[in-house]
Design brief:
The complex is a heterodimer. Chain A contains 14 helices and 10 strands. By secondary structure, chain A is an alpha/beta fold. Chain A has a single domain, classed as Amidase signature (AS) enzymes (Alpha-Beta Complex). In chain A, strands 2-1-3-5-4-9-10-8-6-7 form a 10-stranded mixed β-sheet, sandwiched between helices. In chain A, helix 1 runs antiparallel to helix 2, helix 8 packs across helix 10 and helix 8 packs across helix 11. By secondary structure, chain B is mostly helical. Chain B has a domain of 42 residues. In chain B, strands 1-2 form a two-stranded antiparallel sheet. The longest helix of chain B has 15 residues. Chain B is flat and about 50 Å long. The chains are: A alpha/beta, B mainly alpha. At the A-B interface, helix 8, helix 9, helix 10, helix 11 and helix 12 of A face helix 1, helix 2, helix 3 and helix 4 of B.
């Protein structure tokens, strides 16, 4: 691309983002995004591998050019004094930061209905949710406003909205991508992920943001991910189909789409093997002990002293903390802080937190057992249903949590996973999920390249 | 209900969170639903061999690399004073408060 073409592309992206305003997927005002994109296009280095590519960034990832609110009132207008490493890497590769995407407050949710700045609409059916918590990022990619966006995952927050919106979502191995500048929710689970309109778009952004970072000691000392070539066939691949991910009450349309994808994988030459991950049913209860426990600790820093908004009219220090947090956090965040405090409190720690950490070890052993027996990858549905109606699950937190039942195991065990569109049910997208071995994202991406070419992600299943 | 409104009030105090009295019954009901759901982890242990002896799982690098313990400049683009609600002479400022509530925490 020439400089003139990049400037034209930046203006076109700004127009598309402006047209997508009705989705409420972007928290940055369109005029601000346009001005910034034009300025970035004029200044960007021309040699980068993402030269001129507009990338939206989930609003729990710190940027210097835009505020970072985490979708919360407590951080309304908050301007980070530093930038996330993933954003610095995107810019260095020539990408243009296309504003901040809406999300469930502090990335806690599966529907992007829990943002202090209003819910995000599904691009294909505005009565439904786009999934969450990276629902803004997914909706912007699905609407064609940007070719890729950054999201973050703690229990499936990239793959689940990718599946609901019909785009590609990748969660890398824990430790593959720097989290410096990602606002912490569950530190033993959080990872930055990527959403893209195709496997290639998502994979090349992942390649750019991956690799070592001296500012994050949980980031492995490894080179950035090398992208595989697009394979003609999948001979030599052994793909496991875990029976626990195909329960009797799986949505029949989701099952049909998965069956078709599995047939396609077989036709491509992959060996298909039935496998078992026996502790899968305990993943969600385990997750909803560990994630709130870590959240209750991580969010203690938002107390009205150092960050964001502050309650007025208080007379004691305890009141300053409590009133600031009570007014600044929304209902779902408050609920999770309370549950986290409960499971860590004296008398309950052994019953819940210790038990959950032990179950986590068993979930990790399940994956190791399968991979040690010659299975390269697992294939599953990403979600048990297609996108649900807005408001349908907000009254019952557990029903909402179950939307992540096929995605949370990869977060609990640190393995990489990705979702890609494998068909539609009455016009609504279905996602298929590959789960890979630690730091072998390239195998996962290679299989996804082949499957993406073999089946149409937009055909009725 | 496995979690009572009184317990929610106490947990909220531990979590430094003000909760409206009128919302306590609803919060207690929702927390009970969540706590009853996660309680199945205990049943898993009771059914034999599912985890009581498993070592807790820690993701990430096998060995955490430690930074050198040296004073270095903060990699901030702006001053700390730019992002704190109030800041003076190297300190975060809070409103003048009547008390530090030393007695309340143990009440």
């Amino acid at each position: 691309m020439t400089e003139v073409e990049v400037l034209a592309a930046a203006k076109a992206a700004a127009t598309r983002l402006s047209k997508a305003k009705r989705l409420n997927a972007l928290l940055t005002p369109p005029a601000v995004v346009r001005k910034s994109l034009v300025a970035q296009a004029k200044a960007v280095r021309a040699s980068g591998v993402l030269y001129g590519m507009p990338v939206a960034v989930k609003d729990n990832i710190c940027t210097l050019d835009f505020p970072t609110t985490c979708g919360s009132k407590i951080l309304e207008g908050y301007q980070s004094p530093y930038e996330a490493t993933v954003v610095t890497k995107l810019k260095a590769a020539g990408a243009l930061i296309a504003g901040k995407a809406n999300l469930d407050e502090f990335a806690m949710g599966s529907s992007t209905e829990h943002s202090a700045y209003g819910r995000v609409l599904h691009p294909l059916d505005r009565t439904r949710v786009p999934g969450g918590s990276s629902g803004g990022s997914a909706a912007l990619v699905a609407a064609g406003a940007v070719p890729a966006a950054l999201g973050s995952e703690t229990g499936g927050s990239v793959r689940q909205p990718a599946a609901f919106c019909g785009v590609v979502g990748i969660k890398p191995t824990y430790g593959r991508v720097s989290r410096y500048g990602l606002v912490a929710f569950g530190s033993s689970l959080d990872q930055v992920g990527v959403l893209g309109r195709s496997v290639h778009d998502a994979a090349r952004v992942l390649s750019v943001i991956s690799g070592r970072d001296p500012r994050d000691n949980t980031c492995e000392d490894r080179d950035s991910l090398r992208l595989p070539t697009v394979p003609e066939r999948l001979e030599g691949f052994v793909i496991g189909i875990p029976k626990e991910y195909f329960p009797v009450d799986l949505h029949p349309g989701v099952r049909r789409a998965c069956d078709r994808a599995i047939r396609a994988l077989k036709d491509l030459g992959a060996a298909i093997r039935d496998v078992s991950l026996p502790h899968t049913a305990y993943a969600i209860p385990t997750y909803y002990v560990i994630a709130p426990a870590e959240a209750s600790s991580n969010l203690a820093r938002f107390d009205g002293v150092r960050y964001g908004s502050r309650a007025g009219g208080v007379t004691t220090l305890a009141d300053l903390y409590r009133e600031t947090r009570g007014a600044g956090f929304g209902p779902e965040v408050q609920r999770r802080i309370l549950v986290g405090t409960y499971v860590l409190s004296s008398g309950y720690y052994d019953a819940y937190y210790r038990k959950a950490q032990q179950m986590r070890a068993l979930l990790a052993q399940d994956f190791r057992n399968v991979f040690d027996r010659g299975v390269d990858l697992l294939f599953t549905p990403t979600t048990p249903t297609v996108a649900f109606k807005a408001g349908e699950r907000t009254k019952d937190p557990v029903a909402m949590y179950l939307a992540d039942c096929f995605t949370a195991p990869a977060n609990l065990t640190g393995v990489p996973a990705m979702s890609l569109p494998i068909g539609r049910v009455k016009g609504l997208p279905v996602g298929g999920q590959f789960i890979g071995q630690p730091f072998l994202e390239d195998d996962m991406i290679e299989a996804a390249y082949a499957l993406e070419r073999a089946i149409s992600g937009t055909d009725e299943a | 209900m496995s979690v009572t409104p009184d317990e929610v009030r106490q947990i909220a105090k531990l979590a430094e969170l003000s909760v409206d009295e009128e919302h306590l019954p609803e919060l207690a009901a929702q927390m009970s639903r969540i706590v009853d759901y996660i309680a199945q982890l205990g049943e898993a242990g009771g059914s034999g061999g599912t985890g009581d002896h498993a070592k807790p799982f820690i993701p990430g690098p096998d060995a955490i690399r430690l930074r050198e313990d040296v004073v270095a400049p903060q990699p901030l683009e702006g001053k700390i004073s730019d992002f704190a609600p109030a800041f003076k002479d190297g300190f975060f400022l809070v409103p003048k408060l009547g008390a530090f509530d030393a007695g309340e925490e143990t009440a």
